[in-house]
TrEMBL record:
GO terms for molecular function: carbohydrate binding; glucose-6-phosphate 1-epimerase activity. The lineage of its organism: Bacteria, Pseudomonadati, Pseudomonadota, Betaproteobacteria, Burkholderiales. It comes from Pseudoduganella albidiflava. InterPro entries: Aldose_1/G6P_1-epimerase (IPR008183), G6P_1-epimerase (IPR025532), Gal_mutarotase_sf_dom (IPR011013), GH-type_carb-bd (IPR014718). It catalyses: alpha-D-glucose 6-phosphate = beta-D-glucose 6-phosphate. Belongs to the glucose-6-phosphate 1-epimerase family. This is Putative glucose-6-phosphate 1-epimerase.
C-alpha cells in the first residue's frame, strides 16, 4: 500500500504482484484508477472532475449510498461519495492485493448526516486479482431501529470506440449498442459481458438487484460542468445497484459484490 494523492485529495494505491494497480481516494472511497497488469487503464476519469472534495468525483467508481439518484427525499446519490472514509485492513499475498475503506455516521459531514440520521457502518474492500478486480460492499445497521437504504457501485468503464461498444446479458434485451443517450434500469442478472472496443470484460454481481446503464449523450453532457464536452464518448456506466430504498433491520448486514474479469 502506498499513500498518494488524487488532485488535492489523499489517496491510497495498491499494487498486485502481477503489476495491476488501483488508486482509491479516501473522499468517497472512490476508485479513481484501475490499471491491469498490461498497463491499460480500465476506468474513465473526467479531466474536468473536481479533485478537492468540494463536490463528487466524476468518473471511476462513485459509491452511491443510501439513496440512488433522486429516488427519495435525500441527497442525490447519497452521502457516501461526499464523505471522507478511513483506510482499514490492507495487504498483499502471493497473487492479490487489497485495501478496505470504512465509513460510519460519525465520519459524515454534519449537514449531510442530519439528512439521514441513522447509525451505520460501511466497508468497501477492493481486491486486485490476476484476472481482475473485486469490489465487496458491506452495509451494517449499527443502530436500534431499522433503516431503508439504496446503493450502487457506479462504475465508469473506459471505452475505446463508443459506438462499437456492446453489452450483452441483460434480461429480455438484445445486445445493447451504445449511441443514443441511455439511462435504463434492468433487473440484475448474475453476469454481463462488455466489449469496450478492445478485449472483453465480464461483469459479475452478487446481492444487487439491478444494473443501471447510463451515458448522458452529447446534449446532456454539455450541461455537466465536471465533464468536458467530448468526454461522453469515452465511457459507459454499468452500475450494479439496489435502486429502491429497502429496509435493513437493526443489527443486520447486507453485502453486494461486483467482480470485473478481463480477457485480452
Ligand atoms: O451526475 P450524477 O449525480 O453523478 O449522476 C449521474 C447519473 O447517475 C446514474 O447513472 C443515474 O441513473 C443517472 O440518472 C444520473 O444522471
Amino acid at each position: 500500500m502506498q499513500e498518494t494523492t488524487f488532485g488535492q485529495l489523499p489517496a491510497v494505491s495498491i499494487t498486485a504482484p502481477d503489476g495491476a494497480q488501483a488508486t482509491i481516494a479516501l473522499y468517497g472511497a472512490h476508485l479513481v484508477s484501475w490499471r491491469t497488469a498490461d498497463g491499460r487503464e480500465r476506468l474513465f476519469m473526467s479531466e474536468a472532475s473536481p479533485r478537492d472534495g468540494s463536490a463528487a468525483i466524476r468518473g471511476g467508481v462513485p459509491v452511491i449510498f443510501p439513496q440512488f439518484s433522486t429516488r427519495g427525499p435525500g441527497q442525490r446519490h447519497g452521502i457516501a461519495r461526499l464523505s471522507h472514509w478511513r483506510l482499514g485492513d490492507h495487504g498483499n499475498d502471493a497473487t492479490t492485493a487489497w485495501a478496505e475503506f470504512l465509513l460510519t455516521q460519525e465520519d459524515v459531514p454534519a449537514e449531510l448526516a442530519r439528512g439521514w440520521p441513522h447509525a451505520f457502518a460501511l466497508a468497501l474492500r477492493f481486491t486486485l486479482r490476476p484476472d481482475g478486480l473485486e469490489m465487496r460492499f458491506h452495509v451494517r445497521n449499527t443502530g436500534g431501529e431499522p433503516f431503508d437504504f439504496a446503493c450502487a457501485l457506479h462504475t465508469y468503464y473506459a471505452v475505446d470506440a463508443f459506438t462499437g461498444t456492446v453489452l450483452t446479458g441483460l434480461p429480455d434485451t438484445s445486445p445493447l449498442n451504445f449511441g443514443p443517450p441511455l439511462d435504463n434500469v434492468y433487473p440484475a442478472p448474475a453476469g454481463l459481458t462488455l466489449q469496450p472496443g478492445t478485449g472483453t470484460v465480464q461483469l459479475a454481481q452478487q446481492g444487487f438487484t439491478e444494473f443501471v446503464v447510463w451515458n448522458p449523450g452529447a446534449e446532456a453532457a454539455a450541461r455537466l460542468t465536471d465533464l468536458r464536452d467530448d468526454e461522453w464518448q469515452r465511457f459507459v456506466c454499468i452500475e450494479p445497484a439496489r435502486v429502491d430504498q429497502q429496509p435493513l433491520a437493526a443489527g443486520a448486514d447486507w453485502t453486494g459484490v461486483h467482480t470485473i474479469t478481463v480477457a485480452p
